[in-house]
Amino acid sequence: MKFAFLVVLFCLAGLAACSPMFTPPPLPTDTPLPLTDTPTPTIVWFPPTATSTRLPTTTLSITPTLDTRPSYSGLIFSDNFSDPAKWSLNRTPVGNVALGVNEINLAVTQARGYLFSLRQGPSLDDFYVEISANPSICRGEDEYGLLVRVSPSLNFYRFALTCNGKARVDRFLDGVASAPQPPVLSGAVPPGAPSASRLGAWLRGKDLRFYANGQYLFSVRDASIPAGGLGVFVRAAGEDMLSVNFSNLEVYSVK
């Protein structure tokens, strides 16, 4: 009995030693994945094509430039302003129109005064005209320039340069004024005074083109006044005096 008690006590003290049938559970192991016969596909970033793709081409279309140079031929006449019978000259409260040495001078002495002088013939329909203008006293919106196709009833076109570098065309028809070409600023028109400009006007039928110092400015299409004479003018925009000399008038036939 005593021996059995000792055996039981010994087993309680060391349970593992008295349990020969106790087996610890196995440790988990990695289960290998099943092998596959299908390989992972390779990404082809630039797949080949059967034929090369042409890039679209652009065809440039060149628009012909309008030739705005004045086309003219033989000289019809010229005027060096030496004959007083060819121009209307006067002295008025507004100012004076007088011939100088190979030039005509228009001087406004009245505030906002307007002066013009007309040449005594011939009547012209299609022609190209040039004249030199030299403002000696001129400022701001003061105007000077050329009258073309002046009829006996005083219908005409007025090509004007201003003393602040602008150009314009007015039409006077049956006492009514209009502006086929409003004022535009142009680098071809020198501002201020003293200065010098060569004005040009090309007229054929209803087509009218205007130039300053060899540069094309603009065109006007108008058939209201088919023919007439020539003239020059000045107009003061303010209270100050205005004086401009005109010289070297040349008129050519147009092609």
Protein described:
The protein has 255 residues and is mainly β. The chain has a domain at 94-254: Jelly Rolls. It is 5% helix and 43% strand. The chain has one helix at residues 2-13, and strands at residues 72-79, 90-91, 95-99, 104-108, 114-118, 127-137, 143-150, 156-162, 166-173, 176-185, 197-204, 207-212, 215-221, 229-235, 242-254. Strands 1, 2, 3, 4, 6, 11, 12, 13 and 15 form a 9-stranded antiparallel beta sheet that branches.
Helical residue percent? under 10%
The class by helix and strand makeup works out as: mainly beta
CATH fold-level label of the domain at 94-254: Jelly Rolls
Strand portion? 35-45%
Number of discrete helical segments: 1
If you compute it from the alpha carbons, what radius of gyration comes out, rounded to the nearest whole angstrom?
A: 50 Å
Q: Ranges with pLDDT <50 over ≥5 residues?
A: 1-22
The SSE order reads HEEEEEEEEEEEEEEE
